[in-house]
Amino acid sequence: MRPVQVLRSAIRTVPNFPKPGIQFKDITPILSDIDLLKLAVEQLALPFKEKRITKVIGVESRGFIMAPMIALELGASFIPVRKEGKLPRQTRSVSYDLEYGSATVEMHIDSVCSNDRILIHDDVLATGGTAAAVEELIERSGGKIIGLSFLIELSELNGRAKLKHKDKACSVVMV
Ligand code: AMP
């Protein structure tokens, strides 16, 4: 089987979690198998190997799991983007609309600078709202977005359309 097929078959879809109507993509079977974990990190990093990435941005919370591993694979460092009120020092923040209400993502003000070449990572691209907000956060910080990497893209939600750098987004598994 090709790497993508191997990973695809390990992802578990859990209906109606955490609320009715959501088809939750559970990646824990990948994390708990050393070969699948290595394969996933390799596949996530592969398109960006020669791109001189300096920082990999991980999005809270499941984006935190693989972003540091992708960073090590690419010889880059890791920067967390967190939900509102979690980071201890001065932050820059961007708010975005959810189906009901809004959410805010934050990053330490000194974590990205103008000569940084940035890769944004999250586990799932769903509606695209989170990733688009992170793009804005990086651009306000002066960093250059070189790519976005997702383990899973939910193609029917067309989240890619919301991304400013949609042509630079790579998903390992499209479902
Ligand atoms: P969105 O802003 O709609 O693209 O949602 C992206 C975030 O929500 C990601 O950080 C995912 O971890 C999480 N997420 C959204 N939909 C799902 C899903 N069906 N299964 C697992 N995680 C999801």
Fold and architecture overview:
- The chain has 175 residues and is of the alpha/beta class.
- The protein is built from five helices and nine strands.
- The protein has helices at 3-10, 28-31, 34-45, 63-74, 129-141, and strands spanning 12-15, 23-26, 55-59, 77-83, 91-97, 102-108, 117-125, 144-153, 169-174.
- The strands form two sheets. A seven-stranded mixed β-sheet has the order 5-6-4-3-7-8-9, with helices on both faces. It has a two-stranded antiparallel ribbon with strand order 1-2.
- Strand 5 (91-97) and strand 6 (102-108) form a beta hairpin.
- Helix 3 (34-45) crosses helix 4.
- It is globular, with a radius of gyration of 15 Å.
- The two termini are 17 Å apart.
- The mean pLDDT is 97.
- The structure holds adenosine monophosphate (AMP).
How would you summarize this macromolecular structure in one to three sentences?
By secondary structure, this protein is of the alpha/beta class.
Write the layout of secondary structure elements.
Blueprint: H1 3-10, E1 12-15, E2 23-26, H2 28-31, H3 34-45, E3 55-59, H4 63-74, E4 77-83, E5 91-97, E6 102-108, E7 117-125, H5 129-141, E8 144-153, E9 169-174
Parallel strand pairs: 3-4, 3-7, 7-8, 8-9
Antiparallel strand pairs: 1-2, 4-6, 5-6
The structure holds adenosine monophosphate (AMP).
The site of adenosine monophosphate has 18 residues, from strand 2, strand 7 and helix 5.
